[in-house]
Records
---
Amino acid sequence: MGPVTDLSEWLPRAVGAVDSWMTRFGQFEAHPSMRVSDEALGEAFERLAVRLQDNYPFGHPRYVGQMVKPPHPAAVLGYVTAMLINPNNHALDGGPATAQMEKDVVARLATMLGFTDHLGHLTSSGTIANLEALWIARELHPGKAIAYSTDAHYTHSRMCQVIGVEGVSIPTDGAGRMDLNALEAELGTGRIGTVVATLGTTGLGALDPLHEIVALARAHETRIHVDTAYGGFFALIADDSVDGVASAPYAAIAHADSVVLDPHKHGLQPYGCGAVLFADPSVGRFYLHDSPYTYFSSDELHLGEISLECSRAGAAAAALWLTLEVIPLSDGGLGQVLRANRRGALEWARLLERSDALAPYQAPELDIVAYFPKHQTLSAIDAASTGLFRAAASLPPSQQIHLATYGVQAEAMAARGHHVTADVAQGRILRSTVMKPESAAAIHEIHARLESLAR
């Protein structure tokens, strides 16, 4: 099975298009130092091909481990085509075409998330996007702490250290969501300036109750930042339907002050492509700086003027733009990909409920499924989970299943109604991401094989 689009046909077109454009400016000879013989390149390429085999089959339906998957062929084509020119989206004279594409796709993302006015840009990662959002939060509420749930991405505690702000971890409930009573108690102290709500925790795919967090935060004059790096594109199917997701948390994004999402996760993009958006464009004043040799070609906004990063690949904007041209941000476009993921996760959860060998840890809110081999003690669950993880990956290549593990505490197991003897404080269970639509059709095969190994 190959990609949905034959890139062997389209990539030569990319080279041809760029070559044709370049001829308008006149022919020139490459410097001798840049020349490499086909023989030397061929030998080096063979070594590269061999070394790349030391990877996992991220694109295969039976790879349901980490949040990794190949980009859509349209994204590859867009990236490679623009990369041949190598624009830099820091300033308009470094990438005029791709800068306009970036403004276009960011506007589409803002509309998807319910923002009317906005200021935003692409970043090289969700980590950098969150850094920018928290930095702006610090500037607007100096001396105030930033609160996030214990299941939030470690980016937030790390970036609080980077910007010199106190980070406050809020406990989660029995579904991995931010505990509202604990949050209200912290807000009552008056020391919290910003609350980070996560829509799609990277561990379990849990959705913090943003619609309720908004009311609490506003009552205490606190900013709201939404980290939906993983779950953001599920806004396209947030309709409470059978194969959709909860609508209330996503509808509340429109009331947030800032939001981060990662097109290199569910947006079918290559690494790295994150995005940060602010509801109030006036926060651009905090980015104010001068670069006398950069911002001279246009009076329009240069993306580097609203970004902490300097050089950024314009090719990332071209990749996302081309992808959204053929798979739009709509239920009938990218939404159909997400619905397939969601159906796969829900079907797996149903199979786990009926299993005599495996048990679901909690119901999936997005497309992440957590489960564990049935045993009486947490130490036995830990050992069995580790054994199953290794055994599934050690099968013949045509049968291999690649999983991930997830650390849980005994208290978290009890909070979800799992009657397990807590002979150790923490153990590992299994965690799978059904983030490729092709995986949905393989769920029964995956589950049956894992169940057999677990027995």
---
Amino acid sequence: MKPAASRARVGGRYGEDALVVAVTEPAVDGRATAAALRALARALGVPAGDVVLVSGATSRTKVVEVPDDCAPLVAALVNETASR
């Protein structure tokens, strides 16, 4: 996750298999984490409640749980180029 980014976006790879989620909210009082979960839900086309934070509430690296049928879309988002 990239808090306080100039623009919000979901897509691209960080490291071997992490999805990049950039949000404009600052990393203060969980605002960036909440925004990242909402952005990911929007990108996947699922209700916000279907994207659940598993670990990493205060870390830039987060583990989230999404519905199983979202796996192909998550893979596509991870493999997108950062130039969108």
